[in-house]
Amino acid sequence: MHDDTTLLARLRAGDEQAFNALVREHDGALRRVARTFVRTDSAAEDVVQETWLGVIRGLDGFQGRSSLRTWIFGILVNQARRRGVRDARSLPFSALEGDDQPTVEPAAFAADGRWTSAPMRLEDDPETGLLSTELRAHLLEAVDTLSRDQRAVITLRDLVGLSAAEVCDLLELSEGNQRVLLHRARAQVRQALVPLVEAGR
User: Fold this and answer.
1) What is the pLDDT averaged over residues 108-116?
2) Cβ count near 126 (within 10 Å)
3) What's the mean pLDDT in 12-19?
4) Which of 44, 9, 26, 64 is nearest to 162 (CA)?
5) Distance of alpha carbon 71 from its chain centroid, rounded?
6) Pair 59, 49: CB distance under 8 Å
7) Is pLDDT larger for residue 38 or for residue 27?
8) Which of 11, 37, 95, 134 is 20 to 30 A from residue 147's alpha carbon, by CA?
9) Going by C-beta distance under 8 Å and a sequence separation of 6 or more, which residues neighbour residue 147?
10) Is the pTM of this model over 0.85?
11) What is the DSSP letter of 159?
12) Are 184 and 150 in contact (CB under 8 A)?
């Protein structure tokens, strides 16, 4: 499934097995990313379905300027943004999220501004089974508490595995903004997981 050229040829030829394998590979991650933009699981489900329809409709026009995976997530982000804007119109202004909460305890930094202990990286996909079921559940809960932008960045970078450049492009962020959002998101998730990790030692 990693050879985009072969996979694309199979998809364009209407190979149902190739499409089903593609859905199995990406559907869970697409749902997680969609949920960062919309407020309900049912809305995320709708966004993912629209994304897969967009993939089917757009296969012949895909020019390979990015990886197939990045292209699919680009379709998702566009669908999710449209749905998020539409859904936000029906919410009171006071219900919209802010990003003014503190990101991490000041004690986590030394006098020179460096981490006293660096935040753990979340590069392992939680679905690979490398993390315990309990830790995986707490990780996803911690991600769900983040602001929308932080959730989107950490999900795409650490849970899906896209590069910084791909995330900047998909979310229309500057490199600096992406880095700050990821840093804050990782710091908050780390703080949420510290008691669980320490209890397991």
Assistant:
1) 57
2) 20
3) 93
4) 26
5) 14
6) no
7) 27
8) 134
9) 97, 98, 99, 101
10) no
11) I
12) yes
